[in-house]
Amino acid sequence: MTEITDEGRVAEALFESIGQFRRRVRRRVGPAWGPSGHTRAEGELLRHVRRNPGTTVSAAAHDLGMAVNTVSTLVSRLVSAGSLVRTTDPRDRRVARLELSEEAAARIGDWRDARVALTAAALEALSAADRRTLEAALPVLDRLTGLIDADAHDGVAPTPDQEES
């Protein structure tokens, strides 16, 4: 058995803390798609498209850390379900752009608003010092995420190619 380093203990605590936070919010607010039948991966892609309207399959795959063919399959299912709209880029007809359908945009917006309201109410209960500490940690979490992504690509974060689907 290997000895757990200080970094290992922090990593374990980070997974536990973030996991508990996500589970408790999901328990209170519910999953983004409830009884709609969308999978968690589909919901993740839809939320990504909400934040990045006009994205491409390859850009979404890069940003979500998924294989392009996986995202392409998800896109096909979501277009068939009426949750995503795929349009041809007018500047490059080989490129497809992704947008949310009106129904999906409304549903994700409502879900996001509920999550934000729940979390904002909990943040109000923290001390000002705790809120500042938490806010200061957000860029560190972003850098940590970037390091993990870069590590998967031998230290070089990949750039998305234009895609043709």
UniProtKB/TrEMBL annotation:
Q: Which residues form the HTH marR-type domain?
A: 11-146
UniProt xrefs under Gene3D superfamilies: Winged helix-like DNA-binding domain superfamily/Winged helix DNA-binding domain
Question: InterPro entries, alphabetically?
Answer: HTH-type_Bedaq_tolerance (IPR052526), HTH_MarR-typ (IPR000835), WH-like_DNA-bd_sf (IPR036388), WH_DNA-bd_sf (IPR036390)
Recorded GO terms, molecular function?
DNA-binding transcription factor activity
In terms of PROSITE patterns, this protein maps to: HTH_MARR_2 (PS50995)
Which named protein is this? HTH_MARR multi-domain protein
Organism of origin is Acidipropionibacterium acidipropionici (strain ATCC 4875 / DSM 20272 / JCM 6432 / NBRC 12425 / NCIMB 8070 / 4) (Propionibacterium acidipropionici)
